[in-house]
Amino acid sequence: MTIKVTWFIQHETGSPGAGSRGKRIAGFSESWYYAGDNPQSALNALEAAGAGIADILSVRSQLLPANSAVVGARAITVGLPGGTVAREYLRIGKGEATPDIPQMALLCRANGAGVPNHKLFSLRGVPDEMVRNGEYGGSREYDVSLRNFFRQLARWQIRCVDTTQPIANVLSMAADGTMILDAPIAAPAGDVVNVLRVTVEGNRQRGGIFTVASVDATQLVVKVTGWKYGAGEGGKARKHRIKFVNVAEKREAGGVTDGDVRVLRAVPRKVGRPLSEYRGRNSHRGR
């Protein structure tokens, strides 16, 4: 089964000691997927060291500044009912790294194993001195920590669309969501399809994910619910399926296996409750 694991990172402003004024807290989370027997096994994987490197939470904390820390994690089974399993952690960032605001981040790309899919993700809380003139500069020590984190990611999974599903051209789309296709897509009533780039009035392209309401005997006339863009033509339709695949591996010099992950560029990223009292996601859902 597939387990979704989310770990939580807390960042504090202000200098330690009685002279610090205006201390505030920000928080953010990062999620990956794990193929395991139950949520507990996924949390155990968080604490498992790799070949010559620490566990993934420890190597993640090495990328954080001094007043940031990984403070906990939760795991839940994807697609099945059941409670969330959570654990508290305290993996404090590097003491010598200069902290500032947690919005500085590295945009990264993790490639899926054996598929064209990839995951774009951000590593927030990058120390100030790692970004110079708006670009990631790094250091020898920080690059090693970054590589160790990427190496640990090779044990984890990404969530992606199954692009091997049948795809057909949309010959026409009626205002009520009835499509005429040039080939069957094997999506019966109640299934879900992804409609891509249908040209509607004003030469605008529209699409989305829709539930199939009915299919005729030829499987070429498919009606979907929720289409609200009017009549159109062109585009594609594909049966919509989500799958989970491992982060791809790559062999480095000396036979060392790394995750096929790389840094794209430095970017600013918002955090959960930027530099105000961070109370977590439950407070947001309650509003």
What do you see in this structure?
The structure is a single chain. The protein is mainly beta and 287 residues long. The protein has two domains: 2-15 and 23-161 and 244-281, no CATH class; 167-240, Ubiquitin-activating enzyme E1, FCCH domain (Elongation Factor Tu (Ef-tu), domain 3, Beta Barrel). It is built from four helices and 20 strands. It has helices at 39-46, 56-61, 140-153, 281-285; strands at residues 2-12, 25-35, 68-77, 85-92, 104-111, 118-124, 131-132, 135-136, 157-161, 167-173, 178-181, 192-200, 204-215, 221-225, 232-233, 236-239, 242-246, 249-251, 257-259, 261-268.
Helix content: 10-25%
List the secondary-structure elements in sequence, H or E: EEHHEEEEEEHEEEEEEEEEEEEH
Strand content: 35-45%
How many domains would you count in the coordinates? 2
Number of helices: 4
**Biggest sheet character:** 6 strands, antiparallel, barrel
Q: Spatial order of the strands in the main sheet?
A: 10-11-14-13-12-16
Shape: elongated
Distance between the termini: 33 Å
Q: Output mean pLDDT.
A: 86
Number of strands: 20
By secondary-structure content and strand pairing, the structural class works out as mainly beta
Low-confidence stretches: 274-287
The value of Rg in angstroms is 23 Å
State the gist of this model.
By secondary structure, the protein is mostly beta strands. 11% of the residues lie in helices and 44% in strands.
